[in-house]
Design goal:
- The complex is a heterodimer.
- Chain A is of the alpha+beta class.
- Chain A is built from 2 helices and 3 strands, in the order E-E-E-H-H.
- A 3-stranded antiparallel beta sheet of chain A has the order 1-2-3, with no helix packed on it.
- In chain B, strands 1, 2, 3, 4, 5, 6, 7, 8 and 9 form a 9-stranded antiparallel beta sheet that branches.
- The chains are: A alpha+beta, B alpha+beta.
Chain lengths: ~80, ~160
């Protein structure tokens, strides 16, 4: 891992079209400005980790319970009536 | 080569045997978060049903129950970013048959307490048979939206007034 020190308002360029700016530092929080092409997905890392965790928790290969089928069908009927 | 073919045929025929279902194999170029090495999934469902199963074609111990989000949250809508649209080979201004599903976290003891992940829907391009779990970094979309409506008190109030 490359580790760089930067002061407020100093910038880091990554490749040709991504630039990071340290906008502000307050306590243990750093505000970063990110300029990147719109096709580059930018995501806080913990958001991805949270989805990984949620998916692992959701793992099931059991048949869909009948009770759940009924519940969703009732909900769907209610939803489309609104 | 032989063994791969053989395995493929066995799995396909097992899935085909399920009665009254409209199943298809979907390729997830990036896998599914938590299961990044799994790329091929079967979408197993009755036609038009709001519930389906997404089962790995590579490991039959890996699967999810998925729900059409509009059956739970009628006004659910998402915006797909350009990078995700690229993975799904969705072309701008072309209407592709896109399906949106959400992964359910089943509570087997009380199914009404099950939740769905509105923040990371599964988006499928049904022409190219491509899938991606799109992560929406939006606080208003809950990763644990309760089916019982407890996390959505506004709907409860509306129902009471009606």
């Amino acid at each position: 891992m490359l580790v760089l020190s930067r002061k407020v308002n100093e910038r880091i360029k990554i490749g040709d079209d991504i630039e990071l700016t340290v906008v502000a530092i307050s306590g243990d929080t750093i505000r970063l400005g990110i300029e990147a092409p719109s096709k580059v997905r930018i995501l806080r890392s913990e958001v991805y980790a949270e989805v990984q965790r949620q998916n692992q928790e959701s793992l099931t290969t059991a048949q869909i319970p009948d009770e759940l089928q009924r519940l969703i069908k009732d909900k769907a009927r209610g939803a489309f009536q609104e | 080569m032989d063994s791969i073919n053989k395995e493929g045929i066995t799995k396909d025929s097992a899935i085909d045997k399920l009665p009254g279902t409209d199943n298809c194999e979907i390729y997830f170029p990036k896998g599914i978060p938590g299961f990044e090495s799994m790329h091929k999934f079967f979408l197993i469902r009755d036609e038009e049903a709001p519930l389906a199963q997404l089962i790995s074609a590579e490991n039959d111990q890996i699967g999810f129950i998925v729900v059409r989000p509009e059956s739970v949250v009628p006004d659910y809508s998402i915006e797909i970013d350009k990078d995700s649209a690229g993975v799904l080979q969705l072309k701008p201004n072309v209407k592709e048959p896109v399906e949106i599903w959400t992964i359910m976290t089943l509570n087997p003891n009380d199914v009404a307490k099950s939740t769905i992940n509105l923040r990371a829907p599964i988006v499928l391009n049904m022409i190219e048979r491509l899938g991606l779990q799109v992560i929406l970094d939006q606080e208003r979309l809950s990763p644990k939206h309760s089916l019982s409506g407890i996390t959505n008190p506004n709907n409860e109030v509306k129902g009471a007034v009606d």
